[in-house]
Amino acid sequence: MKALVSELRPAITATLVLAAATCGVYPLIVTSVARAAFKDKAHGSLITGPDGTMRGSSLLGQNFTAAQYFHPRPSAAGAGYDAANSSGSNLGPTSQKLNDALKERIAAYRATNGLSDKDAVPADAVTASGSGLDPHISVKNAELQAARVAKARNLSVEKVKELIAASTARPDLGIFGDAGVNVLKLNLSLDALK
Predict the structure, then answer these.
(1) pTM exceeding the 0.85 threshold for the entire prediction
(2) What's the CA gap between 179 and 184, in Å, rounded?
(3) How far apart are alpha carbons 128 and 134 in whole angstroms?
(4) Cα separations (Å) of 39 from 13, 26, 42, 62, 85?
(5) Alpha-carbon distance 126 to 13, whole Å?
(6) pLDDT (tens digit, 9 = 90+) per residue, 65-80?
(7) How far apart are CA 36 and CA 136, in angstroms?
């Protein structure tokens, strides 16, 4: 019995020491460094309004449907924009369900934004992202929505386009990916004009 206890003691001690280090000390160090060096990002990149209320995260898309707001990409996350059920639709290019949905979305986008049947519709305006929570739309998508938003808010299209430019995130290091417009930031900047 003494031999068993003497064999188990180092194993139990090592397990407890490693558990304390990997489940306690290491996460505390990493969290402390992240909070000190990347305060905004470590707290979820939250956006607050002028009155201090939290309006959302710059990392997560939200559904805007009113005419005076820019509309985000479609979402397949849960019932739409549900962060607890982040996912894509998993429908492939040969899926009839996807093709039917795309036709409906294209027609709705054109009707909502006053486009003709011949006007091209950006892919991000009618397809969901892989997560279903993408906070950005393409610059072209935003520009096609500008006239509708300007009319609904009694603003000039030029003023709305200035706000689009101010809310546009450039590609990483200027070369990786495409520029994107953060829909929440853009809509909040529109609301701030009041």
Answers:
(1) no
(2) 16
(3) 8
(4) 36, 19, 5, 23, 26
(5) 57
(6) 899 999 999 888 877 7
(7) 27
